[in-house]
Amino acid sequence: METSTGGAAPPDSSVVTAEGVAGDAVVVTGATAVPPASLSPSRAGDFMQCPLLYRFRVIDRLPEKPSEAATRGTLVHAVLERLFDAPAAERTAPRAKALIPGQWDRLRESRPEVGELFADDPEGERLARWLAQAESLVERWFTLEDPSRLEPAERELFVEAELDSGLRLRGIIDRVDVAPTGEVRIVDYKTGKAPRPEYAEGALFQMKFYALVVWRLKGVVPRRLQLVYLGSGDVLTYDPVLADLERVERKLLALWEAIRLATETGDWRPRPTKLCGWCDHQAHCPEFGGTPPPYPLPVRAPESGGVQQGRMGPD
Ligand code: SF4
C-alpha cells in the first residue's frame, strides 16, 4: 500500500450526500422490526463508530444541522465534478474557482437549510472566509492531480449491488477512471486531512466497499483505490486484490447481522470516543446525560424470545 499522510483527520471529509438515506430506513412489518435492506459506507461507518449513532440516524432519523465543514465539502465536490464539463485544456484552477459562486447558489437552491449557516453573518465576513477556504481546497487539488490529463468515465456515480445474502450495498463514487487497458481506478475526494498511517485502514474501508460493489456489478476488481485529501494535500492509494474484497464482504455481513440483532432487541449501545465531539446527538445520548427518544420499533424480550413494544432507556 502506498500512503502519504498528514495530520489527524476529522471523521470522514464531512460531505453531505443523500447516499443511503432512503434505502437505509427500517420498516415494521406486523410485529417484526425489519432491518434496513441496504448499507452505505457512511451508515456502515456509523454503526462501527457507535451503534447508538446509527440508530439516531437511521431509525429515529433525528435531524442534524448542516455544518460549515460538511457544506464546504459538498460545494468543493460539486465544483470538481462540474469542472470536467469543460474541454480538457480549460480545466484550470482559475476556471474551477470561478465555478464556486454558481455552485454555492445551486446548493442553496437545492438545500435551503444550508443558507442558515450564515444567517447571523449580515456583513458576509464569515461567508467570505468560508468561500476563500473552499477556493484554497479547490486550488490544492491542482497540486495533486491534473484534470487536463483526466477523462473520467463516471462522476458522482450512484452504485448499488446485491450480495447473495440479500444485503444491498449502495453508495456514490466521486470519480471512476478507466484506462485504455480497461483497468479501473476509483477516486474519492476528501476535504479533510489525511489520517495518520495507523488509521489508514479505516479510511480505506469506504474505498474497499466501493470496490466490492464494482466487482459485484462488473466482475472486475478495480486496479486502484485513490483518496485525494484536499485538506492536507495528500494522496492515499491502495491496489486491492480479490481477497481484500472477500474480506470486506465478510465484514459487512457480520455488521449486517449485528444491525439485525440490535434492530430486533432495541439494544443500541453508545460507544463514546473522541469522535463524539462531532456528534449532533449528545442531548439524546446517555453518555452525555441525555435520554434517547422512545424506541419506535417492537423489541424482542430477551427471556421469552417474543416481541413487545418497548422503550430503550439509557444503559
Ligand atoms: S455522543 Fe458519542 S456515544 Fe453518544 S451517540 Fe453520539 S457518537 Fe455515540
UniProtKB/TrEMBL annotation:
Residues 291-315 are annotated as: Disordered. This is Putative RecB family exonuclease. Signal peptide: none annotated. Transmembrane segments: none annotated. One of its GO terms (biological process) is DNA repair. Residues 38-286 form the PD-(D/E)XK endonuclease-like domain. It holds the Pfam family PDDEXK_1.
